[in-house]
Amino acid sequence: MDPKLVDDIHRGTSYDLGQQPLLPGSPTGRPKGKQRRKPRLPLGCFWPLWSECVPLEKKTHGTPDWGALGVNVMAGLIMGVRESLGGIVSASLLFSSDNLEISSMLQFGISMTLYTMTVGVLWYSVFGRLQYGYGTQQDLICILQASLASKAARLLRDDPERIPATVVCIICFSSILSGFVSIVVGKLAWATSMLMIPKPVVSGFLGAIGVVVLQAAFKTASGVPFHYFWPDIGIRAFCSSQDRLLQVGCMLLHFICIRKGPDLCHVLLQTDKSGAKFASRKDAVKKYAGLVCQLAPLVLFYGCVFGAGVGMEDLAAHGWTYPKEGSSGPLTIWTTYSLEDVDFHVVRMILFSVDIVALVAMAILCTMLGALAITGRYPTGPSGDPQPDDPLDFNAELITVGAASLFLGCTGGNLVFHKFSVIQLREDGGTHRVAVLTIALVAGNLFIFGCPIGSYVPKWFLGGLFMNTGWSFLKKTLLSYETLTTFNWRGVHLVSPQYGISSCCVLMALYFSPTTSILAGLCLSILLFVLDGMTTSPVNSVVDGQHVVSRTKRPWWEMSVLAAEGDRIRLLYLQGQLFFGSMLQLTSNLEAAAADSRIEFVILSYGRVPLIDPSAAENIKLAQDKMAKFGCHVIHCRMNEQVFGTLSAAGAVRKPSADLLMRIQTLGWRYHGSVVCNSDEHPDAFFHETDCLDYCNEYLVQNFSYNVASPTPPLEEYMREYREVICNEHRRLSESAFERMNDLPGGVMGQLRQFCEVRVDEPAGKNLSDELPSMTRAMCFIFKGALSLVQIVPVVEKPDKLETHAFSFRRGKRLLSRYPPGHVAGIEIFFKFHQQRVEENLQPKLIVSSLLGPPAEVWILRYDGWQDIPGWKQMPDSLKGYLARMLCVQFADTLKHANLKER
Description:
Elements: H1 3-7, H2 50-53, H3 66-94, H4 100-103, H5 106-127, E1 135-136, H6 139-155, H7 163-187, H8 199-222, E2 226-227, E3 230-231, H9 235-239, H10 242-269, H11 275-307, H12 312-317, H13 332-335, H14 344-351, H15 354-377, H16 394-410, E4 417-418, H17 421-427, H18 433-449, H19 453-456, H20 459-478, E5 486-489, E6 492-495, H21 498-511, H22 514-535, E7 539-544, H23 556-565, E8 569-575, H24 583-595, E9 601-608, H25 614-629, E10 633-637, H26 641-650, H27 658-667, E11 685-686, H28 689-706, H29 717-727, H30 735-741, H31 748-752, E12 756-762, E13 778-784, E14 787-792, E15 813-819, E16 824-825, H32 827-830, E17 845-848, E18 856-862, H33 877-900
Parallel strand pairs: 8-9, 9-10, 10-11
Antiparallel strand pairs: 1-4, 2-3, 5-6, 7-8, 12-18, 13-16, 13-18, 14-15, 14-17
Helix pairs in contact: 3-5, 3-6, 3-18, 5-16, 5-18, 6-7, 6-15, 7-14, 7-15, 7-16, 8-10, 8-20, 8-21, 8-22, 10-11, 10-20, 15-16, 21-22, 23-28, 24-25, 25-26, 29-30
Main location: membrane
Transmembrane segments: 73-96, 108-126, 163-189, 201-218, 288-310, 356-378, 398-422, 434-457, 499-531
Domain STAS: 559-651
């Protein structure tokens, strides 16, 4: 396998997942105009178009471009030879075993591989989406299948005659199973879920495969099994055979030729730099250097062998080649073994093992990685593609490749999936399906004529190919630390712990199977995730009640009380998924807060918490019970459905507020409790942070101002009247109290009344701002009830694609401020520059609040007046002066409140 192609596996930065639009109907960058849609089959595959099959002239639109057609055919021929050599490697990896029955199946395995390659490439050339793509059998799966074959051979050691047929049956059934699962995953649109396997685990698994392949290289070249890169028979016995040493030496020279040969060719090319001639020669070297460096040692070897008069029988007798079994026709793979020789009990044991699960998962993952690598390198289709800028449908790719594997498994072949050498094919000029068909023809000819290729390929040659593949995998894994971040430990920069996952997988491969190594990598990833969760604080920020208030505005004397006593409140913004590993810091902080005698309320906001597990909820409940004994009450807010259900099931939420209980019943959420908070109890759950702060602020104001004999600051009559209006929904604030609250001279509100529209019974939920054009420039003086300033936020159809699941009962509405009696709402939109354009759709809306005793009484003052009611412009200057002073103070107070209110 070309190391350049193997390197593409690890180029995660080149994979482009951003081809799909973020929002429905957003532009994708494709040119305007009508485009021809590709016909689609019922199964989900595609049907090819003529423009995809052969390159066409741009002017005539139908006449083949013979020059480009020749380039495609030549690229297909070169890639067909490369894939045929790769097929021999795959077959050798699959049937290289200590068991004699399995190793004797090499020629059969080559025929099976060529058949698989022919059908797989042909299948994708007809039904695939990429007109230059194809799928074939690959080394990675062959290594996993070789492990299954070895396990079957051990189970059948007492009945060795059944081993070959049983191994073939296992290969076919693994192909059928992989194809079926791929189709199901594609149909359920779960393709991208396979990309959630951590990158260090995939890198470590590929490194583990590299270790296995390197061991197979030494074993294939020498004929001696290697463990931990050491011969089983001992180094002295190994060196006693001249043939072994020579074959290992040839293998190492072949490996060096593959790795360094193309670079040497490029260096030699530098001797001639004469314009176009130099450029054409450089392109030729780029295309053919790798193939020449792979085949040149083989040609040189046979030249020396035949020149010395050594025959093929002598080479086989000395172990340099596999024994010649004669020519085999295309029917060999269906006639060599029969179902009567299959031990189906062993087949069932293998198919229901963990190894087969890893094989199927890796087949699907490799399909996804292959599609990502190809589209990442070439995000736009070549000429002839009817939709060159459309994103690749990974689900359709899984269905197409899965159907091919299913068909091959039923007809005696192996499973296939995307191969990274597709990138090399397109670089060589193979842009249309005719190039892919050429690859299928090359493999098909070799399969039909049944030439015993395995007998003519020396073992050292296969070992060199193995070593090149294994080194490519292993090198990228060992050097993967270059793409990872570092952390500072006592002044020393160390590589990320994620690198330990890859290294552990490589070490595990020395002692165990590749499947065990990937399971170990997954376990390490989970362990690191838990450790990170334990060291990462679930608390995003902590604010005390002196620096944060609710979105309900309060008069100045109540704000003075909160400034003095607000530190009795703590607001904790939690973040991330809460689980058993992340709760140690949170519970310790909660218990530390309970030790402070001044802290009476701890508010936990779950707006950034998408998930909480039962153990974390139980820990919160235990900490909550301990804090209650010290007089500190925990209040939960802004929970989504899962968080609320888990907390209520654990008993952490037992007394939700009446408003919250009504809302969750409307939404149909499950509530595990049945207790509603009584008037003398503190609720433990609210809808939003502002509701929690409203309750806590109200508690502090009541207990440290209105219920105190000598409050600070002292209470005057208008202050007590305001309190009675807030507590009694049938009371209204008098004009004199309004004037005293805003430091206005007596009688000003009586003068203002004639310039305002007085509305006495405005029901809750009434949107005053929608009364256009009368409310274009208007402000409201509030005497009863409250007005809410609400911002209308457009919501996308699928918010879960762009944002976390936040707790929100009113989608598209966000409360900015709530104005109680004695305040003025709408100052922001009342004044403007003369030429300023105000977009009504972007302005916040004034809505009558359902709190503080609706219906509301508001006086609406308009800038230009309305109907027969005069407005600000008709107002005398003396009255304007009083109001302007009051409005400036109110506006300044609004800015201060905006800096303090919770976000």
